[in-house]
Design brief:
The protein is α+β, with helices and mostly antiparallel strands. It is built from 18 helices and 27 strands. A hairpin with a 2-residue loop joins β4 and β5. The structure holds adenosine-5'-diphosphate. Adenosine-5'-diphosphate binds next to α17 and α18.
């Protein structure tokens, strides 16, 4: 603000004569004179606004005038101070100058002389303030322009982070380069990785490509832009080192800065003036370098985005073409992707299913069940006898992938095989019974030698084994076909008691110790008592069979939330690790089993089928030569309806 005529002239001396002289002299001239009594008052007045002039006494009622003059020169260096002294001496004058006082006076003084003194002091004060204001204006103008440059860079950075479309980002980059440097034209050249040349990627007011009629390209060996790429340093050209640039156009001034990603130059950002006789300076180089950094980030982002985009498109086209059905669901089970294989399998038309909930989109209750119970796989039975193996895989940060593999052919083969095995087994049973009957008769109809008796035992044992196999096969066939559907409340502790009773001779024969641990009031399960007792018999039977004499067998039942866990643990031969994955397969017998005992390899397959028919799970933990634990989990009875 320029000094106003109304800014006060403060008068503070210990001499009432001086005070009233100044007042009566200056007031009629229109000056705003404030006579103050003490330094404290003067300080308060300074807080209210800066004075135009201060007339101080050498001595003040509450302190030294010189000391206060020094204070004033700190607070308001542009305000002139006049000092009233009692006596003018060189020493006093020197002190006054050191304290920043403009002039001194003493009494007597003529009115017109004092007025002249005051006017002169005011003129000096006004000049000082005028100068200061001009300087401030220059300084703030610079600052303001730098702030607007920064603001523009800020906008550029926002536009880069908010946009993925590289063309619009580069267009903003070109505009910013031109606006910030006040250049006529800007250009962005990128290195073509294939040829090593530079090509024009974006520009503003720069129409070289049209002029040349072809794409604007240049080598990097003998060009200014090429030098920037080779050295990684900016180049500033102006009047003094003006050159004919290797693009056969002449410029008046030019700045080229490198675009770097991972410290490697990938291009050049340039601005130039061709007609405008305006030079660039280091500040422009710095600004353009900042713009180049942003442009490099934008290009890097766009390249990364386009890479992932291409990769995604490729993956999508692979997934779309695979024969198996693939369905990808998000965390809320909404469809993200479904391929033709899945549409064919589930007989879905080509309508857009993306973003629909799986339940509505897939229209399949078995998949819905699988998702609801968070299972890992299920067999999906479809129309016309088709069957799919549905596998559900949770994928973190994505959701779930369901793959559908057509197993109709295997099911058909399996059915044919089972039918065949069932028929054959059935047909074998009668002749086997006949053989056994006749073999038993042999001894009764006449005397036999010891050797003949031994042969008869062999025949009986073999027929017995075949009968067991046939029975197992028939059993398995029945369970797999789902014949024994009847379910009721089953008390597993009773089944365990019965099994121990049935097998007590075998236990005793092998000299095993058995310990059974069942919590009191074990809750029941819902199932088929005959099938479940087969599970218990089989597992206990195996523990006895595959444990060398004098072993230890534990049966343990536990309840965990709504499940029952049964453990059959032995100190037997164990199962070789490589055999573990196949142990529940039909006819599979572990490599260390052959010598142990006769068997068909069907027992565990039967057990697994039964457990799964009861919505349970079975698995084994085993250490070779130390023992095995078969674990069975069955859901507890929850008040299900009886089905016949
Ligand atoms: P089988 O006993 O008739 O051979 P299973 O289906 O009951 O048929 O068992 C398959 C195989 O699993 C057995 O041959 C044996 O190798 C192995 N096995 C089963 N139970 C045990 C066990 N408790 N300890 C060691 N191996 C076992």
């Amino acid at each position: 603000m320029p000094p106003s005529y109304h800014d006060p002239i403060l008068v503070l001396t210990a001499d009432p004569q001086v005070n009233s002289l100044v007042e009566t002299l200056l007031q009629p001239e229109g000056f705003n004179v404030r006579v103050l009594g003490q330094i404290a008052e003067a300080r308060k007045a300074l807080n209210e606004g800066l004075p135009r002039l201060v007339i101080l006494g050498e001595k003040l009622p509450d302190g030294s005038g010189l000391a206060f003059a020094r204070e004033l020169s700190d607070i308001t260096p542009t305000t002139p101070v006049l000092l009233f002294v009692y006596q003018e001496s060189t020493a006093v004058l020197k002190q006054a100058i050191q304290a920043g006082v403009l002039d001194t006076f003493f009494l007597p003084i003529r009115g017109e002389d004092l007025l002249k003194l005051v006017r002169n002091a005011l003129a000096i004060g006004d000049r000082r303030r005028g100068w200061m204001q001009k300087e401030t204006r220059i300084a703030t103008a610079n600052l303001r322009s730098q702030m607007s440059d920064l603001e523009m860079l800020g906008q550029l950075s926002r536009s880069i982070t908010s946009q993925l479309d590289i063309d619009s980002v580069l267009s903003t980059v070109m505009d910013t380069a031109v606006s910030l440097t006040g250049a006529e034209e800007s250009s962005l050249l990128l290195v073509d990785e294939a040829t090593g040349e530079l090509y024009l990627r974006a520009s503003r007011n720069f129409d070289k490509s049209k002029e040349q009629g072809t794409e604007f390209r240049m080598g990097i060996e003998d060009t200014v832009a090429g030098t920037v790429i080779r050295t990684g340093q900016p180049i500033l050209l102006d009047e003094e080192n003006l050159k004919k640039i290797k693009t056969d156009y002449l410029v008046y001034s030019l700045v080229y800065v490198p675009l770097k990603t991972h410290d490697k130059p990938i291009g050049v950002l340039g601005v130039d003036n061709r007609n405008l006789k305006k030079p660039f300076n280091d500040y422009h180089v710095r600004l353009l370098s900042a713009v180049a950094d942003f442009a490099a980030i934008a290009i890097q982002n766009a390249r990364a985005f386009s890479n992932t985009d291409t990769e995604r498109a490729r993956l999508e086209s692979i997934l779309a073409k695979v024969q198996d059905g693939v369905i990808i669901l998000d965390a809320e089970n909404k469809v993200i992707f479904i391929n033709q294989g899945a549409r064919d399998a589930l007989s879905l038309d080509n309508s857009d299913l993306v973003n629909l909930p799986a339940e509505t989109a897939l229209k399949n209750s078995q998949i819905k069940d699988l998702l609801e119970r968070n299972g890992s796989r299920a067999e999906i039975n479809l129309e016309e006898g088709r069957a799919m193996d549905a596998q559900l895989t949770p994928i973190s940060d994505v959701g779930t992938v369901i793959t559908l593999h057509d197993i109709s052919m295997f099911k058909e083969l399996d059915r044919a095989k089972s039918d065949f095995v069932n028929t054959v087994s059935h047909d074998l049973r009668t002749p086997l019974t006949t053989i056994l009957g006749y073999v038993e008769l042999v001894e009764r109809v006449g005397p036999v030698t010891d050797l003949q008796r031994e042969y008869i035992r062999h025949v009986q044992m073999s027929v017995h084994n075949i009968t067991n196999l046939v029975n197992d096969l028939l059993n398995l066939g029945r369970i797999e076909a789902g014949f024994d559907k009847h379910k009721e409340i089953v008390h597993i502790d009773q089944l365990i008691g019965e099994a121990c009773e049935t097998l007590k001779d075998q236990l005793a024969y092998k000299g095993h110790r058995l310990s059974v641990e069942i919590p009191p009031n074990l809750p029941p399960v819902w199932g088929n008592p005959i099938l479940l007792s087969q599970v218990v018999d089989n597992l206990l039977g195996n523990s006895i069979k595959y444990t060398p004499p004098g072993g230890q067998i534990f049966i343990r039942a536990e309840v965990e939330s709504d499940q029952m866990i049964l453990k059959f643990k032995d100190t037997g031969v164990g199962i070789p690790p490589m055999d573990l994955p196949f142990i529940f397969d039909k006819f599979f017998r572990a490599s260390n089993a052959a010598g142990e005992a006769a068997g068909t390899g069907l027992g565990l397959a039967i057990v697994k089928s039964i457990v799964e028919n009861h919505y349970g799970r079975i698995w084994v933990d085993s250490v070779l030569s130390q023992g095995s634990t078969f674990n069975v989990v069955l859901p507890l009875y929850e008040g299900q309806e009886e089905e016949k």
